[in-house]
Specification:
There is one protein chain. With 247 residues, the protein is an alpha+beta fold. It is 34% helix and 11% strand. The strands form 2 sheets. Strands 2-1-5-3-4 form a 5-stranded mixed beta sheet. It has a two-stranded antiparallel sheet with strand order 6-7.
């Protein structure tokens, strides 16, 4: 296949960027999207040009680093991570526009690479438990109802890629935050700090400059792990409870 690629190029965080157009021949439909970018970078290297910077690590859809806006959609046309998107999702002769995440809390560092440490700071503000468990407990020392365990496992699949933020017109990270709040809130070990956790993490979310949620639902539609929208309802319920308790 032959592709026309319009790609955001930005040399560093302090310099203005612009779209650049590249032509790529002989793209196999079996290539992943990142493999296609690797081929383009080989072509640029051979021509003595600066290769395109983009994030990736596991290339197995579990680390969340590879996020890109592809034709205006977070991670592209399929509900998957960018690294698991394949070129068979496109047609011969297509023009593909590739941009970094667009959100103030995710500043562009270079080309398609953004700084997502805002998510790390949200987690550090309360996305953990600090219960002193001592030695390893017996397997069933703290029973967890199956529906709670299933719910916790389901929402724990969030990989923190930021697609929810990139897809949201408000630039909200409420789906990410709701997933983390719900994950720990479903477990007995997470109860001691449940009130303080939601207050601290939401305060950090707002401090980082993420927008508010207006329940548009683009976040859940773009999420490669299909985190359900109702985790935001859980976030709001936990917040109301924490306020009632004086937090």
């Amino acid at each position: 296949m032959r592709m026309t690629l319009k790609i955001w190029r930005q040399p560093d965080a302090a310099t203005a960027g612009a779209m650049h157009t590249y032509e790529l021949e002989d793209v196999s439909e079996d290539m992943s999207f990142l493999e296609m970018l690797d081929v383009l970078n080989e072509q640029l290297n051979a021509a003595g040009e600066e290769p395109i910077a983009f994030d990736s690590d596991c290339r197995e859809g579990i680390c969340g680093m590879c996020g890109l806006m592809i034709n205006g959609q977070a991670h592209g046309p399929d509900v998957t991570t960018t690294c698991q998107l394949h070129m068979r999702s496109f047609n011969d002769g297509d023009t593909i526009t590739i941009e970094p995440w667009r959100a103030d809390p995710f500043p562009v560092l270079k080309d398609l690479v953004v700084d997502r440490r805002a998510f790390d700071r949200i987690i550090a503000s309360g996305g953990f438990i600090s219960v002193n468990t001592g030695a390893a407990p017996d397997a069933h020392a703290t029973p967890v109802p199956k529906d709670h365990a299933d719910r916790a496992f389901d929402v724990a699949t969030c990989i923190g890629c930021g697609a929810c933020v990139a897809a949201c017109p408000n630039g909200s990270a409420s789906l990410f935050l709701g997933a983390k709040i719900t994950h720990l809130g479903e477990l007995p070990q997470g109860q001691a700090e449940r009130d303080s956790r939601v207050v601290s993490m939401l305060a950090q979310h707002d401090h980082e400059g993420f927008g508010g949620c207006t329940n548009i639902g683009e976040c859940a539609s773009a999420c490669p792990k299909e985190i359900p929208l109702d985790v935001i309802s859980q976030l709001n319920r936990d917040l109301r409870t924490a306020i009632k308790h004086g937090h």
